């Protein structure tokens, strides 16, 4: 039998005290009551470690980079040990055929019991030739590994939505994982990269409760993606007051006013940055003075400038925003109405002269 | 407009009942508030200085927007009810006779009248067919779109447990791809409604002067008066 998570920890010299601390911390970060800390400890002590295949498609590895920096040092150790991360070509020791053999081994040995974590996404164009892993298209590896998995975790915006490689005009036809894998539960953890603590917490939840977390309609765990950055932003009082940064580095910027007018996408972005923050709770983009760019939202590359809160409207041929299109339309309609009124008046005046006598006879 | 004496003039007809008129003017006010506050939510006033706790400007503007939005929604629901229980004119903008060839013929006649091709407009107790068409597709569906997307955006602030989120935000955001696109199209919708208002006000004033029936006073008194004795074209 595979060793439990607790066995691994003890083997690595982590004390029981530290282990229990981790359990209560994680329970708290998942928004669970204090009574769940023992449940979590029990699960980690008794359940075999969940084998995880971590595949990499078209991506930049920022998800992995974030994941291994999960701020709580213990947490990152814990998760890496807990996962039994059997395959992750970026950080595994094995390489070449040896490494690729592990995928087949895990699929055969843990049929229906392993978790497939996908970072990046498959390109479909040219039969998937734009992303080759071990001599074969990534698409094939993904389909092969997904066929017997328990659930799929789509790490980051690439796997969840498509991200930069799927942005217009998307020459490789990169598609998010759920467009290829349709018969497995998929947990989307979007972000570019996702928040490290969110990644580790999602895994911990699945491990502890042996089920996938509650998802919203778009497949994201509700516990981290049910609110917008704006809803919990510490600069929100400045928004409600009407205090905005008008230019970069103006007095309002130095005072930490709301970045709404600088195109902050906090009001349209579902993520936990304003609550968990980054780098161990040190900061997050808005706190460091720049607006949110909405990296965890579907299609964020195609929504136009990072400094405009409204999307560009491409249907009009030129890149235009809603106000330009709307303002132009109103001006055109107004001008048309005025011109029409002028013609109407002329026509009426012309008709009236001879018709004056005829009007009563009608 | 006030030619209602003389034996040759056709009798006035009671067209718009009280609730319809009330709805019209409350709507006008709500749309005015919604468009102005909505614009300033998208492009706020210059920044205020001082303590954040001293001001609540965006809060008040957003409150006015949401309050007017609910007035619009409540009005629309009551208006739908009135479409069932009111007189036939109360149903007109909700049910244009799209499969009636004769009616389409009159739509084109009305277009010709507006293009200065037809010499004389037809005469209607209710809306003229072109007005019915535009009110149905631009106004009715326009505000349905604005109410639905508006509730979807409102639900975002209320949170995933709220009825607004459950009924509107989830599927509408999914449909548009992301929340930013919903904001964008809600914004475009505002400009479309403003265009409608421009055309509506202009056409109403022009028809009042140039057509063969009263327009503006009818939405105040409810009575349609006529300027000549020939029968209206929509009495069947």
* Alpha-beta content class of chain B: mainly alpha
Helix content of chain A: 40-55%
Subunit organisation of the chains: heterodimer
> How much is the radius of gyration of chain A in Å?
28 Å
Report the biggest beta sheet of chain B as strand number plus sense, adding barrel if it closes: 2 strands, antiparallel
> What about the largest sheet of chain A?
5 strands, parallel
Q: What string gives the helices and strands of chain B in order?
A: EHHHHHHHE
Low-confidence stretches of chain A: 355-362
Distance from N terminus to C terminus of chain B (CA atoms, Å) equals 25 Å
In sequence order, what are the helices and strands of chain A, one letter per element? HHHEHHEHEHEEHEHEHHHHHH
**How far from one another are the termini of chain A?**
102 Å
On the 0-100 scale, what is the average pLDDT of chain B?
91
Share of residues in strands of chain B = under 5%
**How many beta-strand segments of chain A?**
7
Based on secondary structure, the structural category of chain A is: alpha/beta
